[in-house]
Every structure is written in C-alpha cells, then in structure tokens.
Write a structure and sequence with these properties.
Number of domains: 2
CATH class of the largest domain: Alpha Beta
Radius of gyration: 27 Å
CATH architecture of the largest domain: 3-Layer(aba) Sandwich
Helix content: 40-55%
Largest sheet: 5 strands, parallel
Order of helices and strands: EHEHEHEHEHEEEEHEHHEE
Structural class: alpha/beta
Shape: elongated
Strand content: 15-25%
Number of helices: 8
C-alpha cells in the first residue's frame, strides 16, 4: 500500500492544494521544492511514491528521475505543464510510472495515484503467486502450475512420471529417498520392483546430461535409493 507521498514542485499553491486532497484520502504527505530537497527527504523518510514536477529551478525532474531509477523502483508520477508527446514519451522512457498534466483536477490526480496503487497490488500478488508455484534447486526450476521444467534456462521435456519423480527430488534436495518411498509416492504402491525406479532414474539422467550447464545430478545411494545434489563442477 502507498502511504507516504513526496510532492516535488516549486509551485507552492499546487502542492498545498494537492496535499489537502491527499490528506483526506489518508496519505502522509511530504513536500520539496527542488531536487536537492527531494533527495534529503528520500534519505530521511521511507517514501512510497513521488509526484514529481519536471520544470524546476536547478536540476530538472527528468534528471532526478534518472538518478533515482539507478537505485530504486519507487513509483514516480510526473506532474507537469509539458504536454507534448515527446515529453510524455521521454518521461515514461526514463522510468516514470505515469505522466499527468497540471491541467488535470486534484481529484483526477488522486484517482491516478489510486489506479497505480491497484496495479502495484495486483502485480505483487501475481508475482508472489508465481513464485509460490516455482520450485528451484541451483539452476533447475520447476513451474508446478504449468509443469514446465528448465535447467539453465533450457526446457527439459519429460513424461508424466519423470516429471513427478524429478519434482519430488527437487522439492527435497539432498534428501535420500528409498526405492519403496519413491514407488509409493510416484506409482502409488508401497512395495514393488526397484527396477522400475532405476529405469526412470536412468531416463531422467540421460535427458539431464544432454543439456548444457546442468548444475544438478541424481546421485545413487547404493542399496538405499536416490537423492538430488549439486554437480561437483557447478
């Protein structure tokens, strides 16, 4: 959630008007009249969003935006009298999240801030969901939602059982699984022929070894079963 907003503009009346609207919406508002003051506020306070003018005394908003983007992904909205397409494109190109002309009403500006806030929340939720669906070990990644397996960025084509077997080993790296444990987890029966497991492990190893830069390997623990380990040369 965006809580603390920094207004950077040399026009005091505009800042005071915007502050009134933002305070009513529950935001904490900070003010700076130039780039130097803005940097001081950013060093002292955990700001969630910048509403930044372009034409200011001294350093421009474009320059300040560029320098901030080298260190931070904080949301930045340009608020400016410049309305040319070239100015808008430039502002977005150097890292602004939105571009608002000063002819917009305070209500519209607040609405744009809230729209950006909603996009950030949705993006964060989507990213977190995607991360939860991905299992990783070294340079092996398994997307459990799409069932796509990749090693070093290269896709590994697997059968259903091969996928289930590798997924289990990847979710518990370095843990030794016995033949019986693998049979029960993947094939659904407690006891069976260990040869079945050995055949599938052999197929998996063959496919993994064909990929360049494979930093994982399935290790045989003699007389017991298998585990997934990092390769010695990784």
């Amino acid at each position: 959630m965006l809580k603390r907003i920094l207004l950077v503009d040399d026009e005091k009346e505009i800042m005071e008007l915007l502050e009134d609207f933002l305070l009513v919406e529950g935001y904490e508002v900070y003010q700076a009249s130039n780039a130097e003051q803005a940097r001081k506020v950013l060093l002292q306070t955990d700001i969630d969003l910048l509403l930044l003018d372009i034409m200011m005394p001294g350093e421009s908003g474009f320059s300040l935006c560029k320098s901030i983007r080298r260190e931070s992904n904080i949301p930045i909205l340009f608020l400016t009298a410049l309305e040319k397409d070239t100015d808008i494109i430039r502002g977005l190109h150097i890292g602004a999240d939105d571009y608002i002309v000063k002819s917009a009403s305070p209500g519209e500006i607040v609405a744009r801030i809230k729209a950006l806030e909603r996009r950030l929340v949705l993006s964060s939720s989507s990213l977190n969901s995607e991360r939860e669906n991905i299992v990783r070990f070294k340079n092996l990644a398994i997307n459990k939602q799409t069932r796509v397996v990749s090693i070093g960025g290269q896709t590994l084509s697997l059968t259903a059982k091969e996928y289930e077997l590798l997924s289990l080993l990847t979710e518990h790296p370095k843990q030794v699984f016995t033949y019986d444990q693998l049979l029960e987890s993947i094939w659904g029966y407690e006891f069976g022929d260990a040869h079945t497991v050995r055949v599938y492990i052999a197929k998996l190893r063959e496919k993994m070894m064909k990929l360049e830069h494979c930093h994982v390997q399935i290790i045989t623990v003699w007389g017991i079963g298998y585990k997934l380990e990092e390769t010695e040369h990784a």
